[in-house]
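Workshop exercise sheet. Pairs work together: one partner reads the sequence aloud, the other fills in the structure field after running the prediction. Swap roles for the next sheet.
Pair: D.N. / O.F.
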Amino acid sequence: MRYVMQMPEGRCTGTQAVPTLTLQDVADLANVQRAVVSMWRNRPMVRGRFLPFPDPIATAGGLERFSRDEIVGWLRDTGRGNNGEAALDAPALSVPAGAPLEDLVTLLCLRTHSGEELSGTTPEERDDLARGIDPHDEFMLREVRAAEGGAGALEFVDELVEAAFGGGDALARLERGRLGR
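Structure field:
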């Protein structure tokens, strides 16, 4: 029996890529050392059951990437790791590929100061939010206009805020994560 989560349309949901985690992200999520995750990959038997580690779905920058949802399901099914809140914490670790740290910090500031979800917003709507917060362009407006706010980045920022204990914790998680390493 092979552990595989079926995803609609291959490995994509709609037009957006499936959120992914690197092996270091998996280690951070499970609250274990990176070497432990490598050991898990080589030991498919868990308490007498065959539950192999999920296969990577992509490679980017020389790093294998794994479906976030498959990893969360595998951690739940195997009981491995030291984080009972893995399903809640996972969205904060699945940074969209190619998203610049500075842009995510800018979008996080906009999300935190406006209190509005950014997913599904247009650049014009984000500009309006920023102008409402920073009408004289003293600390945010220009940065929001320049930020690459693709759908993946917007969704990530919303999920990061939901997983965090406030804006400060969200920023700390972002800086401790893949982009900050």
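Discussion prompt: Residues 1-16 have pLDDT under 50 and may be disordered. What would you look at next?
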